Known about the structure:
The chain has a two-stranded antiparallel sheet with strand order 1-2. About 25% of the residues lie in helices and about 20% in strands. The protein contains two helices and two strands; from the N terminus they run αββα. It is elongated, with a radius of gyration of 22 Å.
Amino acid sequence: MMESAITSKGQTTLPKAVREALGVGPGDRVRYVILDDEVRITPTRPLARLFGALKHDCSPVTLQDMERAIAEGACDL
Length: 77
């Protein structure tokens, strides 16, 4: 169990072990979720950090190709 003090401005410092567990550092943002009498802290990840997360080895398709594939799949229902 860890504790940290609250300043007169309502600020606190996340202990190093918490920062490491969340994988956050200076400039990162966290989200607070209130559940009954508990608060969960989760890291927020900018969408830009996801760039390149999914690997693929196929060629790009056009919007028309996607719409045609969706239409063909809908006919199978």
